[in-house]
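I am still getting used to backbone structure tokens and would like to learn alongside you. Label the sequence line and the structure token line clearly, so we can match residues to local backbone shapes. Would you write everything just below, so we can both look at the same thing?
***
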Amino acid sequence: MGIFSKPMNPQILVVDDEAPLREVLSLYLRKKGFDVATAFTLKGAMELLDNSQFHLAILDANLESECGLNLLGLLKSRHAQLPVIIFSGSPDEDLPRKALAAGANGFIHKTHSLHELFAEVCRHISA
């Protein structure tokens, strides 16, 4: 009889330069049944994306010394089919429009609840 393996959980990449926030999102999403990898820089995110298959990325729009929208453009140029949700605390009221115009599939403000983020994640990951 063969070895049975558990079906793979959807893989999510969380990219944020705030360590406590990365940890909270990772724990929350893992409890919801996802496998989560994290990065805090553009370089780290691209290394993970180039070496693993993800079902979704959650990306901070303002990484320390890097613009998340630049990462979004690079990410979409190399992984066009990967859904990306921009997760930002920026007060820029025009940011959601800019993010969607740059190729984001969704936008959630960091002041929204984790439940709202989870709903947005579920919209982009098929069961």
About this structure: The chain has a mean pLDDT of 88.
